[in-house]
Amino acid sequence: MVAPIKDGLHTCLPAGRDFKTQITQIFYLSITCWLLVSPAQAQPQSSTVRVAIIQDIESLNLKINSFYEVFDSKANKALYKGKGLRATVTVFKGGIVLGGINFPAGKILIKANDPDAIVINGRRFRGDIELMEKDNFHFLVINRIDLEDYIKGVLYNEASHYWPQEALKALAVACRTFALNQMQENKDKDFDVTSDIYSQVYGGKASERYRTSEAVEETNDLVLTYNGKIFPAYYHATCAGKTEDASILWNIDIAPLKGVNCGFCSGSPHYKWHAVLSSDEIREKLGNSGNNIKNIKDIVILARDTSGRITNLKIVSDEKEIEISAKDFRNILGPNIIRSTNFTTHVVSNDVVFEGLGWGHGVGMCQWGAYFMAKQGKTFEEILKYYYPGSNVETIRF
Predict the structure, then answer these.
(1) Domain boundaries, given as residue ranges, for the chain
(2) pLDDT band at 255; cut points 50, 70, 90
(3) What is the DSSP string of 79-121?
(4) What is the pTM of this model?
């Protein structure tokens, strides 16, 4: 971590020099310190995260318990001011209906004086709410929220607030790093992250708890970097012995995400799993994804990677065979049913039996491994260094 510039000035100025010499040295020292600032500190342009909390919806219930303003997001123009609101939100072609008022703007921003005053479909959210008209009279709901408040709304959904504090702090840093990476990657899109398992599970203010919020505050502005850059600090529930190489799943190939041996998560409740699906159910789900097949006779594992996870498999019927990646197969059947790609399978009558290890994609930090490392007295920095080798914990500045 880079020492604050003011500390450098206090410790580096020589005594007994004339005023002009000291001013000159202050100038050059300031330039030097500026150049030494971590690249991670210079990257983010804003601390506001844009979270897609509801997508493709026709209407919603909105309540605001304070003064509020409505803005045209594209024109950055104030449209309306009010106090207190209970309304159904819908859209019309070219605009949005809010509280019986037609706003002729495809994207409006709602700002409340009280940061905790907005309630959507019974859930309370901090920050601002943006409503964006989409196709077929549907719209998108985006929560614009400060990064630290966003992490507080995530952490409880990703781990129990009863977990050891060092494990929660490690997860807070990973969550913050992942969010910042997505803010950079998606800056030209409508939103940065979603509120579900495909980004990070976010529940708004209702998901905040004292201990998880404390972990966020104790790691305030801390992120992971590699070669001075923020990277997607993926994490998952249980790796079952070895974390995955990210390059096998996604277009990223860096040392912190190459995978490590994990001897800590054997006590996880998700270390082993079992699932049974009917052949008809699998056939239907495959068909809905464009992989049409009849009368599943067998599912053959074609290859595994160095972590033991399946890379490709083959589905056999009387008529044909379909090859599919294990990642796609898992997503098609449901990632909470097929909990990982590390499994064996066999067909019994009209059923397919899966026996598996671990839960999640396996990349980055194993959360239950972090739990047991913290139980053994490891600090959050030690946990992060273990699961993201070669990374550094640094302070971000906006």
Answers:
(1) 5-37, 59-137, 148-265+363-395, 272-357
(2) very high
(3) EEEEEEEEEEEEEETTEEEETTEEE--SEEEEEESSTT-EEET
(4) 0.86
